[in-house]
Design a protein that fits this description.
2 copies of one chain form a homodimer. By secondary structure, chain A is of the alpha+beta class. Chain A has 2 domains: about 35 residues; about 140 residues, Nucleoside Triphosphate Pyrophosphohydrolase (Alpha-Beta Complex). The first copy, chain A, is built from 3 helices and 10 strands. The relative contact order of chain A is 0.18. At the A-B interface, strand 1, strand 2, strand 3, strand 5 and strand 6 of A face strand 1, strand 2, strand 3, strand 5 and strand 6 of B.
Chain lengths: ~190, ~190
């Protein structure tokens, strides 16, 4: 089934802060029904990058940092915003250096994911990083970030932790495991 | 490493619309550094539920609907907001009936996930639904939702689709596959 997209009748700003821009959108669906939605306008650059840094011993470099949204320390993958027009692989290496102190000689895009397509245009590029080496870059974090290496083959143990909750990080760990398994398959063909 | 949480110095509303409430939070970290963050205040009830409806033949009932945030049709799992104080399993069955026309005799919680803990308190309950049977409930959707059954054992094919992008749906499909495999293991013990 392929449907024509709803027609956009009007878009207006209903709230705005330093970081957030809320729009009200009036739409007319193909069946004639008209609806108003609120959404977060695309802003703050072109999106975000989430990095899966794989050490040679099969451990993933997770980070544990304070999250203001949930008001607690959260375990997850290094991430950051892309600057305007920036290549996601460039963002990935910069954020990796700032948050873990490691650079990567080998980075590759795994997939682009959305966060909440119903009300946000936000896109996150998932990047696999390998061949890591010490190469710290000062970041703008309010306190030192804790790096927590975790064995990729203990994904179940990771999912059992109460502080590993972010959907993007959960999805990215599975995607990385699949990608690395595929690589292994190819090596043995 | 266990750190004391940053101290909250002040919280104030900086923008508000019908659905969104943006707060500025001033924090002092344990090392004395003070920082201001913006976040989306918890609101609109206690969270959301995402359902993985598994048919007896191993197909998952996906839905395809228009998403105002990305302005395109997106493939994903049925979901909806919990009403105040509502059990997530109750929300799951209601949303499943409204969006797919099926009820479920067996529902179980898989995991709670966060969306963007850095700036949002939003939590999503992932629920596995089995023993499905026809039991439609009228919803408030602007147009009929397309139901797309997809074989769980073709997760790679699903991930290759350009319209299956939501991180929560990607993570939930993997979690459901693991949970069902564990069930299978137990059956054979």
């Amino acid at each position: 089934m392929s449907r024509p997209k709803p027609e956009t009748l009007a878009v207006r700003t209903v709230a705005r802060s330093r970081l957030f821009h809320v729009q009200a959108v009036s739409l007319r669906f193909a069946n004639g029904v008209e609806v108003d939605f609120e959404r977060l306008a695309p802003g703050g650059g072109s999106g975000a990058v989430l990095v899966v840094p794989v050490r040679a011993d099969g451990f993933i470099l997770l980070i544990r940092e304070y999250a203001a949204g949930t008001d607690r320390y959260e375990l997850g993958l290094p991430k950051g915003r892309m600057e305007d027009g920036e290549d996601p692989l460039v963002t990935a290496v910069r954020e990796l250096r700032e948050e873990t102190g490691f650079g990567a000689r080998r980075v590759e895009p795994l997939r682009v994911m959305s966060l909440a397509p119903g009300y946000s245009a936000h896109q996150t590029h998932i990047v696999l990083a390998r061949d890591l080496y010490p190469d710290p870059l000062p970041g703008d974090e309010p306190e030192e970030i804790e790096v927590v290496p975790w064995p990729l083959d203990d994904l179940h143990g990771l999912l059992a932790r109460e502080d590993f909750t972010e959907a993007r990080s959960v999805a990215a760990m599975y995607l990385a495991r699949d990608a690395l398994a595929d690589d292994g398959d190819r090596l043995h063909e």
